[in-house]
TrEMBL record:
It is an enzyme of class 1 (oxidoreductase). Its EC number is 1.1.1.267. NADPH binds at T12, G13, S14, I15, R39, N126, E128, G212. Residues 148-236 form the 1-deoxy-D-xylulose 5-phosphate reductoisomerase C-terminal domain. Pfam families: DXP_redisom_C (PF08436), DXP_reductoisom (PF02670), DXPR_C (PF13288). It catalyses: 2-C-methyl-D-erythritol 4-phosphate + NADP(+) = 1-deoxy-D-xylulose 5-phosphate + NADPH + H(+). Keywords: Isomerase, Isoprene biosynthesis, Magnesium, Manganese, Metal-binding, NADP, Oxidoreductase. Catalyzes the NADPH-dependent rearrangement and reduction of 1-deoxy-D-xylulose-5-phosphate (DXP) to 2-C-methyl-D-erythritol 4-phosphate (MEP). The keyword DNA damage does not apply. Residues 6-134 form the 1-deoxy-D-xylulose 5-phosphate reductoisomerase N-terminal domain. The lineage of its organism: Bacteria, Pseudomonadati, Pseudomonadota, Betaproteobacteria, Neisseriales. One of its GO terms (biological process) is isopentenyl diphosphate biosynthetic process, methylerythritol 4-phosphate pathway involved in terpenoid biosynthetic process. Pathway: Isoprenoid biosynthesis; isopentenyl diphosphate biosynthesis via DXP pathway; isopentenyl diphosphate from 1-deoxy-D-xylulose 5-phosphate: step 1/6. This is 1-deoxy-D-xylulose 5-phosphate reductoisomerase.
Length: 392
């Protein structure tokens, strides 16, 4: 079998490095065509040395120059590209059979969309693409003849728990509910009063998963689960009423599908992103992901609780945005990205995140943008207007 070409967007991040870990286990199956990241020169250089891609993208220009220099010195024949358009270019290369979309935030949308239009097999980690532009993204996948495989562990679990060849009708598949599990994050047991005082360092220390900063804060506020509800809506054509969230602190049951006949099908495993990554890479086959088997005798109890929407209003806001439709999810996402950055920067407190998101949903026009350009313009407008009002 000829190795399949893979492009990794967001190569230096948590998902990117886990993806390359899986690639390294199967050199006969995968060949890295391009690696792309924002500005982490050292890490991308090491990855270039190990995986010898044809192209390396550093979106930041200075970082690109630095990388070029280092690759030249090392005599490595990798072509370095820069700028946001380079992301779209590598996402559509003819040699790319699959594209791992693992850039964080709405910044990942244009390249993921380009891969969809080019009919690639898209391994989607960047949930924000679907939150911001679900309708456009799903049409691009259909029209481009792309294959969309969810990498987000919950959606990967649901994909595995739905019938093979699921065609986008819960009704036809006999599904009553899609049940997303949530770990509850590091602050699950804190009171409202305590939540006001938590620090970025505490928020970034997730009990079960090691992830990038943005998604770690999202997990702590439960906005991550909110974004995932919207992601599930688009991926599985599921109305908000058919999506439930259950807090399951052990993160062993990665999500479930409840059927009409009373059956519940779930996917279980160790909390290690290499499992859903490898599944998406090899589907419908299964390959070694370097993940240890689940040891049932070593497991503590598996417990389940109702999410508390009072203490964690972000989840409620995301459900509301999904129900409002139009650009509400895009506004929610833009406001959340601004709020998370401001929290990490010490400009606002943790509970300032839901506050800012709620204000934004009340203040901006939520009617649906007709085109991608209009949507991106709205995204920029929300960001700049909120950023201008932040305390320094
Ligand atoms: P991360 O912060 O560890 O890595 C982000 C990557 O994106 C880096 O390679 C960075 O260079 C790149 N990047 C950032 N801004 C960019 C920009 N403007 N242009 C181009 N590249 C840019 O993040 P992560 O935890 O790997 O998460 C990546 C995506 O995967 C997010 O959308 C996240 O929600 C999703 N996801 C992550 C996990 C996880 O376990 N980490 C699980 C599920 C879903
Ligand atoms: Mg997830």
């Amino acid at each position: 079998m000829k190795p399949q070409g893979i492009v990794v967007l967001g190569a230096t991040g948590s998902i990117g490095t886990n993806t390359l870990d899986v690639v390294a286990r199967h050199p006969e199956r995968y060949r890295v065509v391009a690696l792309a990241a924002h500005r982490q020169v050292d890490r991308l250089f090491d990855q270039c040395r190990q995986f010898r891609p044809v192209f390396a993208v550093m979106v930041d220009e200075q970082a690109a120059s630095a990388l070029r220099l280092r690759l030249n010195e090392a005599g490595l024949p990798v072509e370095v590209l820069t700028g946001v358009h380079a992301l779209e270019m590598v996402a559509t290369l003819p040699e790319a059979d699959m594209v791992m979309a693992a850039i964080v935030g709405a910044a990942g949308l244009p390249s993921a969309l380009a891969a969809a239009r080019a009919g690639k097999r898209i391994l989607l980690a960047n949930k924000e693409s679907l939150v911001v532009a679900g309708q456009l993204f799903m049409s691009a996948v259909r029209e481009g003849g792309a294959t969309l495989l969810p990498v987000d562990s919950e959606h990967n679990a649901i994909f595995q728990s739905l019938p093979d060849g699921y065609l986008g009708s819960l009704e036809q598949a006999g599904v009553r509910k899609i049940i997303l599990t949530a770990s509850g994050g590091p602050f699950r047991q804190l009171s409202s009063a305590e939540l006001h005082g938590v620090t970025p360092a505490q928020a970034c220390k997730h009990p079960n998963w090691v992830m990038g900063q943005k998604i770690s804060v999202d997990s702590a506020s439960l906005m991550n689960k909110g974004l995932e509800v919207i992601e599930a809506h688009w991926l599985f054509n599921a109305p908000a009423d058919n999506i439930d969230v259950v807090v399951h602190p052990q993160s062993v049951v990665h999500s479930m599908v409840q059927y009409r006949d009373g059956s519940v099908v779930a996917q279980l495993g160790s909390p290690d992103m290499r499992t859903p990554i490898a599944y998406a890479m090899a589907w419908p086959e299964r390959i070694d992901a370097g993940v240890a088997s689940l040891d049932f005798f070593a497991l503590s109890n598996l417990t389940f609780e109702r999410p508390d929407l009072e203490r964690f209003p972000c989840l409620k806001l995301a459900f509301e945005a999904l129900r409002s439709g139009g650009d509400a999810p895009a506004v929610l996402n833009a406001a959340n990205e601004v709020a998370v950055a401001a929290f990490l920067n010490g400009q606002i407190g943790f509970m300032g995140i839901p506050e800012l998101v709620e204000q934004a949903l009340g203040r901006f026009d939520l009617s649906a943008s007709a085109t991608l350009d209009a949507l991106l313009e709205k995204d920029r407008e929300v960001r700049s207007s909120l950023e201008a009002r932040l305390p320094l």
